[in-house]
Amino acid sequence: MERNITIYMFDSTKAASNLYKDLQHRIYHTSTFKNYIEDQEKQVENNNINFNSLLECVGNDINMMHPNDLYEITHFFKSQIHPLFPNDSVEAREEYFKTLYDYLGITKLYELTTTNACKAYGYLYEAYIDSFPVTGIQGKDLSINIRTEDFLHFNNFLILVTKKIIDSQLYDYPDELTEEEESIIETVQSENLQNELMSEVIEEEMKFLTKVFYPDNRQDFIQAVYHVHTFLKQAIKMKLIIDVQKNPRIIVVDIY
Asked: Domains of the chain: which residue ranges?
């Protein structure tokens, strides 16, 4: 199984109404969510997922959900919905999930679907938290529920360090940044001119990568160099989408 990292934000009002109701009663294909959780309890030893507690969190404020609980919700939807569209394209399925999640109050900001991409993203995240520790509701592996301000600070770091790696020409990247993307990068650079620690962390990372990088190595930091162009463009998209006032928490789900 490939590793998967997915980043979510929420509309708590929609979730408290629509998601709460669906998780209580709706049969999507062959099962209700309650039956799914009961089956998980039988199959998985030391399963800590509690249906009533999870449902209560959705009803009160999905933003405070444990990352492991969110994984169970999204895994339930995938297991129930994918069999309904066996011959549809990946794009068609994704469009259906986007529509469904919007109705349920869930926004999927970014999904990394290969182990190498996840290793690369995880490497840059861990490089960040070594100097900028974050607190939140910790789940499995890198899974975490954190304040949106903390996530956006990391996202700014990601924009700055990936642009720096691209400019270093360690690897041959396509030159596909739009004027809007370049403008966002310049804004982030301007906002962080006085952030000495951020600059130091990025410079140290660049020294390390410049010293050790060579193609075709499978280590995580090499994968980070390979993936930075994609990470940069996605980080810019997330910066434009996320509204701190409307979206107080971000949940990262990391699954092997």
From this structure: 4-255
Give the tokens for residue 78.
């995938």
Q: Which pLDDT score is estimated for 82?
A: 85
Q: What is the mean pLDDT of the chain?
A: 93
* Residue 90 burial (CB count, 10 A): 8
**Joined tokens for residue 249:** 């928490």
Rounded Cα gap, residues 97 and 46, in angstroms: 30
Question: Which of 21, 247, 253 lies closest to 152 in space, CA to CA?
Answer: 247
Low-confidence spans in the chain with pLDDT less than 50: none
* Residue with token string 């970014």: 110
Q: Alpha-carbon distance 55 to 178, whole Å?
A: 43
* Residues 6+ positions from 232 with CB-CB distance below 8 Å: 158, 159, 162, 163, 166, 177, 181, 185
DSSP letters along 135-154, please? -EEE-STT-EEEEHHHHHHH
